[in-house]
Amino acid sequence: MLTYTIRRLVLAVPTLLFISFAIFMLLQLAPGDPMAQVPLTVPPEVKQQMREALGLGEPPLVQYWKWLVQVFWIEPQVFIDWVTRESWLLGWLPDTQLYQNELRVISWQTRSPVMDIVIQRLPQTMWVVGLAYVVGVLIALPIGVYSAYRQYSVFDQAGTFVTMIGFSIPPFFTGPLLIVIFSVSLGWFPSIYDTTHVVNDWASFKVQLQQMVMPVMVLALQTTAQISRYMRASMLDNLGADYVRTARAKGLSEAVVVTIHVLRNSMIPVVTVIALGVPAIFGGAIITENVFKVNGIGQLLITALFANDLPMVMTLTFIFAFLIVMFNLIADVLYGVLDPRIRYD
Question: What is the domain range of residue 283?
Fold first, then answer.
């Protein structure tokens, strides 16, 4: 397993390089001009100087190479210096902070380092997306187990109906629907997520929970719908297996048979689905964050797209691609750990 993991990590490097190059070339072909928002009163020669200052006058391959150096060489050094609170790697520069900012990936829209903005927005996304995924998984697993054990019961049919709704309705419809019901009609929850809210006592904590309820519900609905169906199908495959009949014939209680034997084997494919679903939930958060005005990474990507901020879009899409590649590796490793019969060597 260790050899397989190392081999996959080595293979991930050219994979990510190819993905980054494909993303970069697609963004180069995309319509739009970062100078479109510049006032018309600005002379053309000034616009050209601004374009050259952003690096747009260089060939695309040169721009891509500079981005690679910034992301894979400069940014890790900046991160290590930030963690250690010392200028170990870039301390040789005459003015470390100034030159770091010049060498890093800079947003065209804000003229600030892209990774600094991402780190500022990341906690908001993790609060909503992370909690939604955990809630969705915790709800989906028992629903899938009980639906399979009570196949074709009222609970199973109701769960199937609800999960089909969760599959069918997209977040851009579920979000406004919840706002109309719970914010406009009932007035239970705020319709806008206040990212400036500070939690310092029990009252402020309750306010934080209230504003998180609806975005978490929207994201958790899709997670619950997907994972519960996988859990149900996996449980049904194992409930009719020979080893289950043997365990019952030995006199084991039904609770032991279901929870120890059936559930453990059924979790093997479901765990891989849970791992592979982590990048997908970040993608779903793009719509949800814009609906509820959550000042996170999803909203940052949409804002950068409208502003033609190519460095920001390039970096964020690469982060999503990195998550997909890494969680695919994690899913494969977990599959081998949970099932001793599987060997990748």
Answer: 120-338
In degrees, rounded to 5, the angle at the alpha carbon of residue 134 between the alpha carbons of residues 193 and 292 is 15
Residue pLDDT, tens place only, 29-85: 776 666 666 666 666 776 666 666 666 667 778 888 888 888 887 777 777 777 776
Does residue 76 lie within any of the structural domains?
no
Tally of CA atoms within 13 A in the half-sphere of 215 that contains its CB: 34
Closest CA to 145 of 27, 227, 26, 47: 227
Tokens of 81: 């210096």
Radius of gyration over alpha carbons of the chain, in Å? 25
Q: Is 308 left (phi over 0), alpha (psi -120 to 50) or beta?
A: left
Residue 42 is assigned to a structural domain of this protein: no
Nearest to 276 by CA among 342, 226, 219: 226
Task: Encode burial over 128-165: b for 16+ CB neighbours within 10 A, e otherwise.
Answer: bbbebbebbbebbbebbbbbbbeeeeeebeebeeebee
Which residues lie below 8 Å from residue 230, measured CB to CB, with a gap of 6+?
144, 269, 270, 273
pLDDT digits (tens, 9 = 90+) for 135-144: 888 888 888 8
C-alpha span between 14 and 142 (Å, rounded): 40
Indicate the number of domains in the chain.
1
